[in-house]
Design a protein that fits this description.
Elements: H1 5-13, H2 17-63, H3 65-75, E1 80-86, E2 89-97, E3 105-113
Antiparallel strand pairs: 1-2, 2-3
Helix pairs in contact: 2-3
Length: 120
């Protein structure tokens, strides 16, 4: 039995469509995995910022603002650390860009009560 000419022409137009669909599917999958990895990295960086701010505030409450700032820089290398004391409390803020997500800044903030007799 022979295949009619119209059916052969219709089948010829579909040649390569599976290849294109597979290429688009794989590219979409790569983009989704890359975004998931960037999101996971941002979450870990956010946790690091909060931990660094907590450590900076704790050290500043016991030893002074200078030492707290130094502790924050050690805990989060490359991040901007600011520690401010006053009114019986110390506030530390740590800010860093999210790697893999341009234009996104992650920040951690912590407040600690100043220890009696601690350096200002």
């Amino acid at each position: 039995m022979t295949v009619p000419r119209r059916l052969r022409a219709a089948a010829a137009r579909d040649d390569g469509s599976v290849t294109v669909e597979a290429a688009l599917g794989i590219a979409s999958l790569v983009v989704v995995v890359a975004l998931a990895a960037a999101g996971a990295g941002a979450a870990l960086t956010q946790i690091r910022m909060v931990d660094a701010a907590r450590e900076a505030a704790r050290v500043a409450a016991m030893s002074g603002v200078e030492e707290g700032t130094a502790a924050g820089r050690v805990a989060a290398p490359g991040a901007d650390v600011s520690v401010v004391g006053g009114g019986g409390a110390v506030t530390a803020e740590v800010v860093a860009p999210a790697r893999g997500l341009p234009g996104v800044e992650l920040r951690g903030r912590a407040v600690a009560r100043a220890e009696p007799g601690a350096a200002p």
